[in-house]
Amino acid sequence: MITGAKRYDTGDTGTRFAAIDELDSEGGASEEQKVVVLLLDGDHDIFDSSLMELGMEGGLAACQQLSSTGLAWIASQGFSKDDTSFSCYLFVNKATTSFQLARSGTLKSQDGLHHFMKGFNASEFPFVAVDTGGGQTSGKLLQFMAMFLDQGAHVLLGGLQNPLYASFISKLSTSQKSLIALVRTTGAKSPEYDSLGLATTRSFSFLFEKADNLAAMGEEEEPGTHGRESSGESRGKRERGRRGGRKHHHGPQNQHASHACNAYYILGFCASLTDPKAHCPYSHDYEFTAQELEELPQRAKRLPCKTAAKDGPEACEDGDDCLYGHHCEFSKEDCPFGGRCWFDDAGLGHAPSKKTIRKARSDRFASTNTSYSAALSAGVQKMRITT
Q1: Which of 27, 92, 230, 387 sits at a 20 to 30 Å CA gap from 41?
Q2: What is the C-alpha to C-alpha distance for residues 96 and 354, in angstroms, rounded to an integer?
Q3: What residues form DSSP beta bridges with 304?
Protein backbone atom coordinates (compact mmCIF):
# COMPACT_ATOMS: atom_id res chain seq x y z
CA MET A 1 0.00 0.00 0.00
CA ILE A 2 1.36 3.44 -0.93
CA THR A 3 2.31 5.54 2.08
CA GLY A 4 1.27 8.85 0.50
CA ALA A 5 -2.19 8.55 2.06
CA LYS A 6 -1.00 7.89 5.59
CA ARG A 7 -1.99 10.42 8.26
CA TYR A 8 0.73 12.06 10.33
CA ASP A 9 -0.32 14.16 13.35
CA THR A 10 1.96 16.20 15.60
CA GLY A 11 -0.51 18.25 17.60
CA ASP A 12 -0.84 21.98 17.06
CA THR A 13 2.43 22.49 15.21
CA GLY A 14 1.01 21.32 11.92
CA THR A 15 4.45 20.06 10.92
CA ARG A 16 4.80 16.50 9.71
CA PHE A 17 8.17 15.52 8.40
CA ALA A 18 6.88 12.24 7.06
CA ALA A 19 9.22 11.64 4.18
CA ILE A 20 12.24 11.64 6.47
CA ASP A 21 10.76 8.73 8.40
CA GLU A 22 10.47 6.76 5.17
CA LEU A 23 14.26 6.66 4.83
CA ASP A 24 16.07 3.63 6.12
CA SER A 25 18.38 3.57 9.10
CA GLU A 26 21.46 3.71 6.90
CA GLY A 27 20.64 7.36 6.04
CA GLY A 28 19.30 6.79 2.53
CA ALA A 29 16.34 5.38 0.66
CA SER A 30 16.37 1.61 0.57
CA GLU A 31 16.32 -0.34 -2.67
CA GLU A 32 12.75 -1.47 -1.99
CA GLN A 33 11.42 1.84 -0.66
CA LYS A 34 11.55 4.97 -2.81
CA VAL A 35 10.88 8.45 -1.48
CA VAL A 36 9.48 11.18 -3.71
CA VAL A 37 9.26 14.72 -2.32
CA LEU A 38 7.57 17.71 -3.96
CA LEU A 39 9.20 20.99 -2.88
CA LEU A 40 7.24 24.16 -3.64
CA ASP A 41 8.32 27.80 -3.31
CA GLY A 42 5.06 29.39 -2.22
CA ASP A 43 6.36 32.89 -2.96
CA HIS A 44 6.36 31.93 -6.66
CA ASP A 45 4.24 28.77 -6.90
CA ILE A 46 0.88 30.44 -6.28
CA PHE A 47 -2.06 28.08 -5.93
CA ASP A 48 -5.21 28.82 -7.92
CA SER A 49 -7.11 31.68 -6.29
CA SER A 50 -10.37 29.71 -6.40
CA LEU A 51 -8.76 27.18 -4.05
CA MET A 52 -7.24 29.77 -1.73
CA GLU A 53 -10.51 31.68 -1.46
CA LEU A 54 -12.04 28.51 0.02
CA GLY A 55 -9.67 28.80 2.98
CA MET A 56 -9.19 25.55 4.90
CA GLU A 57 -11.42 23.63 2.52
CA GLY A 58 -9.28 24.84 -0.36
CA GLY A 59 -6.12 23.68 1.40
CA LEU A 60 -7.62 20.25 1.95
CA ALA A 61 -8.77 20.03 -1.68
CA ALA A 62 -5.35 21.11 -2.94
CA CYS A 63 -3.71 18.31 -0.95
CA GLN A 64 -6.11 15.75 -2.40
CA GLN A 65 -5.27 16.88 -5.93
CA LEU A 66 -1.53 17.06 -5.21
CA SER A 67 -1.59 13.51 -3.86
CA SER A 68 -3.44 12.00 -6.81
CA THR A 69 -1.25 13.90 -9.30
CA GLY A 70 1.92 12.90 -7.47
CA LEU A 71 0.94 9.25 -7.44
CA ALA A 72 0.18 9.42 -11.17
CA TRP A 73 3.65 10.87 -11.79
CA ILE A 74 5.18 8.09 -9.70
CA ALA A 75 3.41 5.48 -11.82
CA SER A 76 4.62 7.20 -15.01
CA GLN A 77 8.21 6.73 -13.82
CA GLY A 78 7.75 2.99 -13.44
CA PHE A 79 8.06 3.13 -9.66
CA SER A 80 6.11 0.59 -7.64
CA LYS A 81 3.14 2.25 -5.98
CA ASP A 82 3.34 -0.23 -3.15
CA ASP A 83 6.91 0.75 -2.32
CA THR A 84 6.95 4.52 -2.94
CA SER A 85 6.06 7.34 -0.55
CA PHE A 86 5.02 10.80 -1.69
CA SER A 87 5.12 13.97 0.42
CA CYS A 88 5.04 17.70 -0.19
CA TYR A 89 6.62 20.72 1.49
CA LEU A 90 5.29 24.20 0.72
CA PHE A 91 7.60 27.00 1.86
CA VAL A 92 6.08 30.47 1.82
CA ASN A 93 6.69 33.90 3.33
CA LYS A 94 3.08 34.19 4.44
CA ALA A 95 3.01 37.86 5.43
CA THR A 96 4.50 39.27 2.24
CA THR A 97 2.82 36.85 -0.17
CA SER A 98 -0.58 37.43 1.48
CA PHE A 99 -0.09 41.18 1.17
CA GLN A 100 0.88 40.96 -2.49
CA LEU A 101 -1.97 38.61 -3.37
CA ALA A 102 -4.53 40.89 -1.72
CA ARG A 103 -3.02 44.04 -3.21
CA SER A 104 -3.02 42.62 -6.72
CA GLY A 105 -6.62 41.46 -6.37
CA THR A 106 -5.71 37.77 -6.68
CA LEU A 107 -7.26 37.26 -3.22
CA LYS A 108 -10.05 39.27 -1.63
CA SER A 109 -8.23 39.52 1.71
CA GLN A 110 -4.87 38.71 3.27
CA ASP A 111 -6.50 36.03 5.45
CA GLY A 112 -7.10 33.73 2.48
CA LEU A 113 -3.58 32.31 2.35
CA HIS A 114 -3.46 31.85 6.12
CA HIS A 115 -6.60 29.67 6.19
CA PHE A 116 -5.50 27.83 3.04
CA MET A 117 -2.24 26.88 4.79
CA LYS A 118 -4.15 25.70 7.86
CA GLY A 119 -6.16 23.36 5.65
CA PHE A 120 -2.99 22.22 3.91
CA ASN A 121 -1.46 21.23 7.25
CA ALA A 122 -4.70 19.62 8.48
CA SER A 123 -4.98 17.20 5.56
CA GLU A 124 -4.59 13.44 5.93
CA PHE A 125 -1.53 13.46 3.69
CA PRO A 126 2.13 13.96 4.72
CA PHE A 127 2.08 17.50 3.35
CA VAL A 128 3.47 20.52 5.21
CA ALA A 129 3.01 24.28 4.67
CA VAL A 130 5.82 26.22 6.36
CA ASP A 131 5.75 29.98 7.03
CA THR A 132 9.38 30.94 6.43
CA GLY A 133 9.24 34.58 7.56
CA GLY A 134 11.20 37.39 5.91
CA GLY A 135 13.55 36.42 3.12
CA GLN A 136 13.95 32.78 4.21
CA THR A 137 11.93 30.86 1.60
CA SER A 138 14.78 30.13 -0.81
CA GLY A 139 17.24 29.21 1.92
CA LYS A 140 14.81 26.88 3.68
CA LEU A 141 13.84 25.10 0.46
CA LEU A 142 17.51 24.65 -0.46
CA GLN A 143 18.24 23.14 2.96
CA PHE A 144 15.49 20.56 2.54
CA MET A 145 16.46 19.79 -1.05
CA ALA A 146 20.07 19.15 -0.02
CA MET A 147 18.93 16.96 2.89
CA PHE A 148 16.62 14.82 0.78
CA LEU A 149 19.12 14.44 -2.06
CA ASP A 150 21.82 13.36 0.40
CA GLN A 151 19.42 10.64 1.58
CA GLY A 152 18.72 9.41 -1.95
CA ALA A 153 15.19 10.77 -2.28
CA HIS A 154 13.69 11.85 -5.60
CA VAL A 155 12.88 15.57 -5.66
CA LEU A 156 10.14 17.26 -7.67
CA LEU A 157 11.18 20.92 -7.64
CA GLY A 158 8.90 23.92 -8.10
CA GLY A 159 9.84 27.58 -7.80
CA LEU A 160 11.37 27.67 -11.27
CA GLN A 161 10.96 31.43 -11.42
CA ASN A 162 13.81 31.62 -8.90
CA PRO A 163 17.28 31.15 -10.48
CA LEU A 164 18.93 30.39 -7.12
CA TYR A 165 17.77 26.78 -7.27
CA ALA A 166 19.30 26.37 -10.74
CA SER A 167 22.61 27.67 -9.43
CA PHE A 168 22.49 25.13 -6.58
CA ILE A 169 21.62 22.24 -8.91
CA SER A 170 24.43 23.09 -11.32
CA LYS A 171 26.96 22.30 -8.59
CA LEU A 172 25.53 18.87 -7.77
CA SER A 173 26.98 15.56 -8.86
CA THR A 174 25.52 13.77 -11.88
CA SER A 175 23.95 11.12 -9.66
CA GLN A 176 22.16 13.72 -7.53
CA LYS A 177 20.97 15.66 -10.57
CA SER A 178 19.39 12.45 -11.84
CA LEU A 179 17.13 12.47 -8.77
CA ILE A 180 15.58 15.86 -9.67
CA ALA A 181 12.64 16.64 -11.94
CA LEU A 182 11.41 20.18 -12.51
CA VAL A 183 7.76 21.12 -11.91
CA ARG A 184 6.16 23.87 -13.98
CA THR A 185 3.45 25.60 -11.97
CA THR A 186 2.59 29.14 -13.08
CA GLY A 187 4.16 28.62 -16.50
CA ALA A 188 7.04 31.04 -15.91
CA LYS A 189 10.58 29.67 -15.71
CA SER A 190 13.97 31.29 -15.30
CA PRO A 191 16.25 30.60 -18.31
CA GLU A 192 19.00 29.32 -15.99
CA TYR A 193 17.20 25.96 -15.86
CA ASP A 194 17.41 25.37 -19.62
CA SER A 195 21.05 24.27 -19.52
CA LEU A 196 20.58 21.74 -16.71
CA GLY A 197 19.07 19.05 -18.93
CA LEU A 198 16.54 17.94 -16.30
CA ALA A 199 13.20 16.31 -16.95
CA THR A 200 10.23 18.66 -16.61
CA THR A 201 6.61 17.93 -15.80
CA ARG A 202 3.51 20.11 -16.21
CA SER A 203 1.26 17.60 -14.47
CA PHE A 204 0.69 19.90 -11.48
CA SER A 205 0.15 23.16 -13.39
CA PHE A 206 -3.67 22.96 -13.30
CA LEU A 207 -3.55 23.62 -9.54
CA PHE A 208 -1.75 26.94 -9.85
CA GLU A 209 -2.45 30.47 -11.02
CA LYS A 210 -1.31 31.30 -14.54
CA ALA A 211 1.56 33.76 -14.93
CA ASP A 212 -0.68 36.32 -16.67
CA ASN A 213 -3.00 36.40 -13.65
CA LEU A 214 -0.09 37.24 -11.36
CA ALA A 215 1.33 40.10 -13.41
CA ALA A 216 0.02 42.68 -10.95
CA MET A 217 2.00 41.17 -8.08
CA GLY A 218 5.11 43.16 -7.24
CA GLU A 219 4.54 45.94 -9.78
CA GLU A 220 3.97 48.63 -7.17
CA GLU A 221 6.22 49.61 -4.31
CA GLU A 222 4.83 48.24 -1.07
CA PRO A 223 3.55 50.85 1.37
CA GLY A 224 4.68 50.80 4.98
CA THR A 225 7.20 52.08 7.46
CA HIS A 226 10.78 50.95 7.53
CA GLY A 227 11.69 49.30 10.79
CA ARG A 228 10.04 49.22 14.19
CA GLU A 229 8.74 52.11 16.24
CA SER A 230 11.18 53.28 18.88
CA SER A 231 10.30 55.96 21.46
CA GLY A 232 7.24 56.83 19.43
CA GLU A 233 9.23 57.62 16.29
CA SER A 234 9.32 55.78 12.99
CA ARG A 235 12.67 54.55 11.80
CA GLY A 236 11.45 54.94 8.25
CA LYS A 237 14.29 57.06 6.91
CA ARG A 238 17.33 55.57 8.61
CA GLU A 239 18.36 53.14 5.93
CA ARG A 240 20.09 54.92 3.09
CA GLY A 241 21.98 51.90 1.82
CA ARG A 242 25.34 53.65 1.99
CA ARG A 243 28.09 54.50 4.45
CA GLY A 244 30.74 57.07 3.68
CA GLY A 245 29.30 57.44 0.18
CA ARG A 246 29.59 53.73 -0.66
CA LYS A 247 26.54 51.63 -1.45
CA HIS A 248 25.96 48.38 0.35
CA HIS A 249 25.98 45.40 -2.01
CA HIS A 250 23.02 43.04 -1.93
CA GLY A 251 24.09 40.53 -4.57
CA PRO A 252 24.04 40.54 -8.38
CA GLN A 253 20.44 39.36 -8.57
CA ASN A 254 19.14 42.23 -6.46
CA GLN A 255 19.00 45.12 -8.88
CA HIS A 256 16.23 47.10 -7.16
CA ALA A 257 15.40 50.78 -7.33
CA SER A 258 15.08 50.95 -3.54
CA HIS A 259 17.14 49.44 -0.76
CA ALA A 260 16.05 46.47 1.31
CA CYS A 261 13.83 47.03 4.34
CA ASN A 262 16.06 46.20 7.32
CA ALA A 263 13.20 45.55 9.73
CA TYR A 264 11.56 43.15 7.32
CA TYR A 265 14.65 41.07 6.54
CA ILE A 266 16.21 41.13 10.02
CA LEU A 267 13.12 41.02 12.26
CA GLY A 268 10.76 39.38 9.78
CA PHE A 269 8.23 42.20 10.15
CA CYS A 270 7.41 45.57 8.59
CA ALA A 271 4.40 47.66 9.58
CA SER A 272 3.33 47.88 5.94
CA LEU A 273 2.36 44.21 5.98
CA THR A 274 -0.45 44.79 8.49
CA ASP A 275 -1.16 48.53 8.26
CA PRO A 276 -2.26 49.65 4.77
CA LYS A 277 -2.01 53.30 5.86
CA ALA A 278 1.71 52.99 6.55
CA HIS A 279 4.21 53.79 3.84
CA CYS A 280 7.54 52.01 3.42
CA PRO A 281 9.90 53.35 0.75
CA TYR A 282 12.04 50.24 0.92
CA SER A 283 11.89 46.90 -0.87
CA HIS A 284 10.57 43.60 0.51
CA ASP A 285 11.21 41.43 -2.54
CA TYR A 286 14.96 40.89 -2.45
CA GLU A 287 16.38 37.39 -2.96
CA PHE A 288 19.24 37.28 -0.45
CA THR A 289 21.69 34.44 -0.13
CA ALA A 290 22.08 32.84 3.30
CA GLN A 291 25.42 34.63 3.77
CA GLU A 292 23.93 38.00 2.86
CA LEU A 293 21.12 37.50 5.38
CA GLU A 294 23.70 36.79 8.06
CA GLU A 295 25.50 40.03 7.22
CA LEU A 296 22.42 42.28 7.30
CA PRO A 297 22.30 42.83 11.11
CA GLN A 298 25.94 43.95 11.10
CA ARG A 299 25.29 46.30 8.19
CA ALA A 300 22.29 47.83 9.95
CA LYS A 301 24.39 48.40 13.06
CA ARG A 302 26.64 50.61 10.91
CA LEU A 303 23.79 53.10 10.58
CA PRO A 304 23.14 55.56 13.45
CA CYS A 305 19.97 55.10 15.48
CA LYS A 306 17.82 58.18 14.91
CA THR A 307 16.37 58.16 18.42
CA ALA A 308 19.81 57.81 20.01
CA ALA A 309 21.17 60.60 17.82
CA LYS A 310 18.34 62.94 18.81
CA ASP A 311 17.92 62.23 22.52
CA GLY A 312 20.90 60.08 23.48
CA PRO A 313 21.39 56.28 23.51
CA GLU A 314 19.47 55.93 26.78
CA ALA A 315 16.35 57.26 25.03
CA CYS A 316 16.18 54.28 22.67
CA GLU A 317 13.80 51.78 24.23
CA ASP A 318 15.35 48.90 22.29
CA GLY A 319 18.75 49.31 23.93
CA ASP A 320 21.21 46.65 22.81
CA ASP A 321 18.45 45.04 20.71
CA CYS A 322 18.17 48.11 18.50
CA LEU A 323 18.57 47.37 14.79
CA TYR A 324 20.84 50.37 14.41
CA GLY A 325 24.05 51.53 16.03
CA HIS A 326 24.45 53.66 19.15
CA HIS A 327 28.13 54.17 18.40
CA CYS A 328 30.57 53.46 15.59
CA GLU A 329 31.93 49.93 15.66
CA PHE A 330 35.45 51.33 15.19
CA SER A 331 37.48 53.40 17.60
CA LYS A 332 38.20 57.03 16.67
CA GLU A 333 41.76 56.08 15.74
CA ASP A 334 40.79 53.07 13.64
CA CYS A 335 37.68 54.41 11.91
CA PRO A 336 38.22 54.07 8.13
CA PHE A 337 35.76 56.91 7.44
CA GLY A 338 37.75 59.54 9.29
CA GLY A 339 35.92 62.85 9.50
CA ARG A 340 33.12 61.50 7.31
CA CYS A 341 31.82 59.00 9.88
CA TRP A 342 28.05 59.17 10.28
CA PHE A 343 28.30 58.55 14.03
CA ASP A 344 30.43 61.67 14.46
CA ASP A 345 27.80 63.65 12.57
CA ALA A 346 25.11 62.17 14.81
CA GLY A 347 27.08 62.92 17.96
CA LEU A 348 27.17 59.27 18.99
CA GLY A 349 30.91 58.74 19.07
CA HIS A 350 33.02 55.62 18.63
CA ALA A 351 33.89 52.35 20.27
CA PRO A 352 36.75 52.50 22.77
CA SER A 353 40.23 52.09 21.27
CA LYS A 354 42.35 49.02 21.90
CA LYS A 355 44.66 51.16 24.01
CA THR A 356 41.74 52.25 26.19
CA ILE A 357 40.51 48.66 26.53
CA ARG A 358 44.00 47.43 27.50
CA LYS A 359 44.33 50.20 30.10
CA ALA A 360 40.90 49.37 31.58
CA ARG A 361 41.84 45.70 31.80
CA SER A 362 45.17 46.62 33.39
CA ASP A 363 43.46 48.86 35.93
CA ARG A 364 40.98 46.12 36.82
CA PHE A 365 43.81 43.61 37.22
CA ALA A 366 45.79 46.02 39.39
CA SER A 367 42.73 46.69 41.54
CA THR A 368 42.02 42.98 41.89
CA ASN A 369 45.66 42.25 42.68
CA THR A 370 45.74 44.98 45.30
CA SER A 371 42.60 43.62 46.97
CA TYR A 372 44.04 40.12 46.89
CA SER A 373 47.33 41.30 48.40
CA ALA A 374 45.50 43.18 51.13
CA ALA A 375 43.38 40.15 51.95
CA LEU A 376 46.43 37.91 51.98
CA SER A 377 48.30 40.30 54.25
CA ALA A 378 45.35 40.49 56.62
CA GLY A 379 45.16 36.71 56.70
CA VAL A 380 48.85 36.37 57.51
CA GLN A 381 48.57 38.99 60.25
CA LYS A 382 45.61 37.13 61.75
CA MET A 383 47.60 33.90 61.76
CA ARG A 384 50.48 35.59 63.59
CA ILE A 385 48.12 36.95 66.24
CA THR A 386 46.52 33.55 66.70
CA THR A 387 49.84 31.80 67.12
Answers
A1: 27
A2: 44
A3: 325
